[in-house]
Amino acid sequence: MSEQQAKLSKSEAKTYRVQGFTCANCAAKFENNVKSLPGVQDAKVNFGASKITVWGTTTIEELEKAGAFENLKIREDKEKAVNREPFWKQKENIKVYISAVLLVISWFLGKQYGEEHFFATIGYAAAILIGGYSLFIKGFKNLVRLNFDMNTLMTVAVLGAAAIGEWGEGATVVILFAISEALERYSMDKARQSIESLMDIAPKEALIRRGNEEMMVPVDDIQVGDIMIVKPGQKLAMDGIVIKGTSTLNQAAITGESVPVTKTVGDEVFAGTLNEEGLLEVKVTKRVEDTTLSKIIHLVEEAQAERAPSQAFVDRFAKYYTPAIIIFALLLAVIPPLFMGADWSEWIYRGLAVLVVGCPCALVISTPVAIVTAIGNAAKNGVLIKGGIYLEEAGSLKVIAFDKTGTLTKGVPSVTDVVTYNGDENELMTITAAIEKGSQHPLASAIIRKAEEDGLNFNDVSVEEFQSITGKGVKAKVNNAMYYVGSPGLFEELLPNGIQSEIKEQITTLQIQGKTVMVLGTEKEILALIAVADEIRESSKEVIRKLHQVGIEKTVMLTGDNQRTAEAIGKQVGVSDIKADLLPEDKLNFIKELRDKYRSVAMVGDGVNDAPALAASTVGVAMGGAGTDTALETADIVLMSDDLSKLPYTIKLSRKALAIIKQNITFSLGIKALALLLIVPGWLTLWLAIFADMGATLIVTLNSMRLLKVKE
After folding, report:
1. Residue closest to 124 by CA, chosen among 173, 76, 88
2. Collapsing DSSP states into helix, strand and coil, what is residue 412?
3. Which residues cross the membrane (predicted)?
4. Residues 176-197: what's their mean pLDDT?
5. Are 313 and 276 within 8 A, CB to CB?
6. Residues 65-76: pLDDT tens digits?
7. Distance between CA atoms of 74 and 90, rounded to whole angstroms?
8. Helix 118-144 vs helix 91-113: angle between axes, to the nearest 10 degrees?
9. d(C-alpha 607, C-alpha 172), whole Å
10. What count of other Cβ atoms lies within 10 Å of the Cβ of residue 200?
11. Are 532 and 413 in contact (CB under 8 A)?
12. Cα–Cα distance between 589 and 570 in angstroms, integer?
């Protein structure tokens, strides 16, 4: 194959859903098996989301063959999920029940007729075969390839126990191991349900009008430009723009906001949101695979495939730990009988117990189950965390920097004060708005909005000779008189004696309050001062307080505004540091300085003009991701609603996840160490070893499930 062809086929990536993964090890093995299939260039398994992406050409039959060791079922990514049997009825669990019954019967027979009795031994052997059949097949295959995983360790231990006559112990180990695997499967299924529940949020079809005809159309067949009719009480199937009607929409599924939002003509609406009261007609703007909900699901699934630092540590540790345990078990079984004349069967038994206790199940599952649970919980609450690495980083943050405009403030300037010196306020505002209509300045829009709110007729005023005075303001003729609107600096130059001292004082007072002052006047006098300010979000002060409360040492506000305005807003909000007069590259450099000093720094912005600073921070947090693709793509964590109050929840969840991961790893290793110490006095039995392993797996899983309870 030529390089060109290789590149071409490499780009043909196809994703499949996988059903039946029991552990991270099996997922890795499946990935390797698929990579070695003919026609496959590469493959990547996402264990958290139960998916595999394959580059190259293959069939579902081939993939299922590659997963036959685990009886994996494969289906197309777009196919509807097959309803899995309830946990108690699953085929692999039924074998466990039969084995358990046989074990109990054999135990009674052993008590009645002695452990060595033929019927007791037959019962135990049957329990071992039924409960451990699939385990042995995997174990033998691995043994031949010298691939020592959990299945290999268990197979050797069980057969060893049978060989030295410990049939009951062997059967107990098989059953406890099967229970442990079933619990692991159950816990991962529970954790994955958070994504599956996201997938079911949006309807699979919608009422569409094409021409004069209305019809139900599956979402895959809906085209951009179609008109979707959404009745009260229905969910939206697609993203779009409202072209007719007004209603309130519950957007909790996308943004996590519990309060419904009013939507009317021209507003953007999202798939998966609930129309509460009015009839809406929506023009579809995105295909089903491009909707905001699809992007969220895709990002959450990708996030679960990202390896967190602690997971990478566990994987590296397990790689060396398992062979070390095997060597230790072998030496323990052989050295005392060979060199110290000890009893062979006793020391082989101890060696087998070491093999069982060495099984790294709990350790391997300790991180992924916590990460999958935390990321799923966050997605349900309108926070997208794009990987375990960012979840962990957010948990260890010391400093958070905020962009001011649009993040701590609403980003929409509004008129706060009008001070007149000569003439009627409405008349002067009408003249100002008429002149500012020709200006592109953001402050001009604040004046026009104010005039519209007050019902002033500024559109009827004729304006002549409009001219912009760069960096200072504008001038124009109204009713044959020349008026100027601009900064105080413009009038210092314009008026023969500069600005009068009492007006200067008034300007300074307004500026100290964090307002930008614009002046209306002529070449001879000042007629009015108009103060404009960017309003602070209601939640900002409370959010900063909560962040300091949860242990964030430093909050910094970054802005391009002048120092005076910045300090007024910074003090109101309660941030610990204020940096003003910054250009975008200054923000970037400041974030780098903070990283050098504190190592872990988050930057919170609206994701559009803050992209460089978001990228330079340890964790970039973007707001309002539901409306902007840029935010979804550039940030590491996205607050889907335009709402800062999700930030303390995110920090709390991340810290809890970090703590739980550390607890899980410590506990898993601690249990192993304790069990290994019991070998010295000879107290470690086979069933106790597997019980320790199973107990650790169960406790680690239940501990991780606590992350589902973290609320705002």
Report:
1. 173
2. strand
3. 94-110, 117-136, 320-340, 352-376, 665-684
4. 68
5. no
6. 888 877 788 887
7. 17
8. 140
9. 57
10. 11
11. yes
12. 20
pTM for the model stands at: 0.72
| Partner residues linked to 518 by β-bridges | 530
Residue 89's contacts (CB-CB under 8 Å, 6 or more residues apart) are none
- Show the CA angle centred on residue 69, arms to residues 68 and 74, nearest 5°: 40
What are the tens digits of pLDDT across the range 460-501? 888 888 888 876 788 889 888 899 998 888 888 888 888 888
Percent of the chain residues past pLDDT 90, beyond the cut: 13
| Mean pLDDT comparison of 248-262, 359-373, 429-443, highest-scoring range | 429-443
For the chain, the helix, strand and coil percentages under 3-state DSSP, each to the nearest 5: 55, 20, 25
pLDDT per residue over 522-554, tens digit each? 888 889 999 988 888 888 999 999 999 988 999
Find the angle CA(125)-CA(126)-CA(132) to the nearest 5 degrees. 85
CA atoms of 697 and 174, how far apart (whole Å): 16
Residue ranges in 387-455 assigned as alpha helix (H): 388-395, 425-436, 442-453
Domains and CATH numbers, the chain: 3-76 (3.30.70.100), 206-290 (2.70.150.10), 372-409+538-655 (3.40.50.1000), 410-535 (3.40.1110.10)
Query: For residue 175, which phi and psi values (nearest 5 degrees)?
Result: -70, -45
Q: Cα 435 vs. chain centroid, distance in angstroms? A: 48
Residues across the chain: 712
Q: Where are the beta strands (DSSP E) in 480-548?
A: 481-486, 516-521, 526-536
Placement of tokens 């004082």 in the chain: 505
457 burial type by CB count under 10 A (0-12 exposed, 13-18 middle, 19+ buried): exposed
Say how far residue 127 (Cα) sits from the centre of its chain.
44
Mean pLDDT of 395-421: 87
Q: How confident is the model at residue 575 (pLDDT cuts 50, 70, 90)?
A: very high
In this predicted structure, the answer to whether residue 703 has a pLDDT above a threshold of 60 is yes
DSSP alpha helix (H) spans, 358-441: 361-366, 368-380, 388-395, 425-436
Q: Which helix (H) or strand (E) holds 601?
A: strand 601-605
- Residue 681 DSSP symbol: T
Residue 426's alpha-carbon distances to 100, 420, 431, 453, 527, in angstroms, are: 88, 10, 9, 12, 12
Sheet holding 554-558, edge to edge: 383-385, 637-639, 619-623, 601-605, 399-403, 554-558, 577-579
CA of residue 276 relative to chain centroid, distance: 28
Distance CA 594, CA 583 (A): 17
Q: Identify the CA nearest to 238 among candidates 275, 270, 260, 197.
A: 270
DSSP letter string, 127-193: HHHHHHHHHHHHHHHHHHTT---HHHHHHHHHHHHHHTT-HHHHHHHHHHHHHHHHHHHHHHHHHHH
Residue 151 in tokens? 């299945």
For helices 167-199 and 91-113, give the axis angle rounded to 10 degrees.
160
CB within 8 A of 345, min separation 6: which ones?
164, 165
Report whether pLDDT(80) > 70. no
Q: Which of 189, 267, 315, 403 is catalytic?
A: 403
d(CA 116, CA 165): 8
Is residue 9 packed enough to be buried (19+ CB in 10 Å), middle (13-18) or exposed (0-12)?
Answer: middle
Cα separation values, 37 from 42, 54, 68, 145, 289, Å? 9, 11, 13, 18, 29
Residue corresponding to tokens 């559109």: 459
Examine the pLDDT at 660 and tell me if it is beyond 90: yes
